[in-house]
Amino acid sequence: MSGVSKPGVSGPDRKTSMNSITAPLQPAAKPRSRLRWPDARSWLAAAQWLVTLLLCAFLIVPVVMSIMAGLTVNYFKGLSSGLTLRWLAEVWTQYHGSVFLSLEVAAATLLITLLTGVPAGYMLARSKTRLSRIIEEFLVLPIALPGLASALALLVVYGGFTAFRMSVAFIVVGHVVFTLPFMVRAVAAVCASSDLRTLEEGAASLGASFVTRFVTIVLPNARPGIVAGALAVLTLSIGEFNLTWMLHTPDTKTLPVGLADTYASLRIEIGSAYTILFFIMTMPLLVAMQWLGVDATGQRSAAQPRGAASSAKSASKSINTR
Are 226 and 218 in contact (CB under 8 A)? Predict the structure, then answer.
């Protein structure tokens, strides 16, 4: 009885059926992998990266070489001559007055452009008349003209006032003429993009005066443009050379003018050390623009600062406290 198999399935047939069940479970043979040639999009991306890196090297390498020249004992011998801070010390000893004068001129320029440029940018954004567009074109005109032409125009008009001509205020006026368009355009761009008219009408319906609306609604919404314009004004004022060279006197020599003098009359190491000092002054402003997320037009790369509702609430709150 033990030798008798179960009816319906024989021994060989049972092995065949088991093999047919387990066959699909066995891993299939992997096809041989072939090296694919990069497509056109990959080649285009690689070319873009290559061009970007070459441009960065073209811009950054001269700056690095100039910095290294200001830190080496002898520029012509290179790093083998050793590193030193002697040239920086000499530049600070001889030209620290120019550094402080540049900061004073930049601060005065910023104050004047804030007091005049913010209201001007707001009014140009609100007004849609042809006269406002003509005024805007006249404000931008100093940017289109060379700095020497603007300086010559100031000399022709105000050069006869000797006390004013010899003072630092004359350079401040020139810097205001040059940097005011950047403040006006930055503020106007933000005011035109945000719905300030609706907010102001709502605040006016609640009884808010123009001053209240300007302080509690316009300024908070225009803050990105104001910050962008302020940083642009400071950077341009500190680095302005053409206009300042035409307007300066021996007693009103700013940082860029002193830099030109060092490269023209002193050793290249001192001129490069002066460049390092100039670099230290301007880099924090550029980093601040990136950190605050604003560009030259006043727009934020991140989210908008506050909602419109918060501005309306602050306006109504200031009205209710009266």
Answer: no
CA 167 from centroid of its chain's CA atoms: 31
Residue-wise pLDDT for 56-95, tens only, equals 888 888 888 888 888 888 877 777 788 888 888 888 888 8
Task: Name residue 300's beta-bridge partners.
Answer: 294
| Cα four-point dihedral sign 50, 51, 55, 56 | negative
Sequence-distant contacts of 277-282: CB under 8 A, at least 24 apart: 277/88, 277/91, 277/92, 277/95, 277/99, 278/238, 278/239, 279/63, 279/67, 281/99, 281/102, 281/103, 281/238, 281/255, 282/235, 282/238, 282/239
Residue owning tokens 């006016």: 204
Backbone phi and psi for residue 59, each to the nearest 5 degrees, phi listed first: -90, -35
Q: What is the mean pLDDT of the chain?
A: 77
Most confident of 28-37, 139-148, 157-166: 157-166
The token duo for 88 is 């920086």
Token pair 């009359």 in the structure block, residue: 265
| Whole-structure pTM value | 0.70
Interatomic CA distance for residues 1 and 25, integer angstroms? 36
Q: What is the reported pLDDT for 116? A: 92
Query: Taking the mean position of all CA atoms in its chain, how far away is CA 178?
Result: 18
Enumerate domains of the chain plus CATH numbers: 94-320 (1.10.3720.10)
